[in-house]
Amino acid sequence: MKKIIAFVTALALAFSAMISVPPVKAASSNTASNLTYKEVAGGFYFVGYEDVKLEKGKSYAYTINYKANVVNENGKVISGQNANYGLFEPHSSGAPVNTAIVNAQNGSDVAAPGNDTFEHKIAFTAKEDGVADIGVYLFPGSVLQTTPDATLIWLSASVNGGEVPSSNTAPVINASDKEIQVGDKFDPKADVTATDKEDGDLTSKIAVTKNEVDTSKAGVYDVSYSVTDSGNLTTTKAIKVTVKENPVNTAPTIQAEDRTIGLNANFDPLENVTATDKEDGDLTSKIVVTQNEVDSSKAGSYKVSYKVTDSAGLSAEKTITVTVLATENEAPVINATDKTIKVGDKFDPKADVTATDKEDGDLTSKIEVVKNEVDASKAGSYKVTYRVIDSAGIMTEKTITVTVKDGTIDLVINGDATISGKISNDSKAENTAGKQAVQTKSDAKKMPKTGDTTMIWLVLAGALLVTGASIAIYRRQSAHK
Questions:
Q1: Residues 78, 109: one domain?
Q2: 269 with 289: CB under 8 angstroms?
Q3: DSSP structural state of residue 473
Q4: Does the model's pTM come out above 0.70?
């Protein structure tokens, strides 16, 4: 009777388990699944998501729960049930997923009394694109031999989770197209930076994934960069590097002429020597005197050589002849005298200034104004200094004084009287044209001198004419009344 009751009970339990928790694999859309074993000999079941597509840089999180039946319905203890959880290669019967895709998240559990309920949370970011099964493999463990088909080994198993919406922003690579010349050095990381909202400066993390640049040949080349932030988000960027042919560089030019100097004259080899370059411009300061044989204490011909090099390494050289005369050269003469001008006058320091030289003749065009203190807006005395150098290198200087006076003028009225007045140059001053103080040097109204009969008769005749005209006018006025 007991055997019949046990058999009937076992059949009821098995039938109930098969209806409530069917032993099937979870579909990839599954959010929770429970599984009960019916046939456990040599078999196992997977509960979870299958063929999950993992995208590089995206994050995922899953919760895996399962519970073992360590005490069966007859009060017997069942132990040794095994479970492997984590990420597995699809359809591999439990092989962990390749760590190149995601870091290991797998583990194992063994059920026993007091240790029958398990929960695991796994979270990861895909390092590469891939596919995985995510969940738990449940193994049979121990089975009661009396009723193997009816023993409930695992009470439940569930898997929940999926892709986690990311708040992480991808890093930014700052790189732009470049142009260089053939033969230039090229550093692919020069002026290339990377920043990330969460991580900050990621420049040191930049990887050059492609660099085709050949600086020995003109052309357009590709350079690619990649950087990954701490959240495994990766940014790539590609630029173009154009290698151009070098333009044809022209050599510089030295401007220097043969010279003649007098005996014992001072000689400066760089005087009036210049250098220019099409690409670099003025190179006068770069001139080097490579040879200077000149001995001005002895008459003769001497060589002076110069060299200059431009920024591209091209050089120019020139040699001139310096002739030292047998006699000393006379110094040139500057012809300039002191001057007086009025406030407000224009002043040309070279006006009426000339220079001559016994050997060179007219040197007026060579005159330099080395000092000019003149301020024509204010009265005062000022200095002006001139300098001239002849072909023998002998220099003459001369200084004159320029006096600037206030604008006072003398107006001559006749031989006996003058009017003098001060004229203001200030346009803002009051109009004083009719208010000038007049000072007479002699009385302009004085009578003619005694004995000057011609003048007396002229005066008398004028008086008579005035008197006669007055009487005539008076009579006419009386007649009309």
A1: yes
A2: yes
A3: H
A4: no
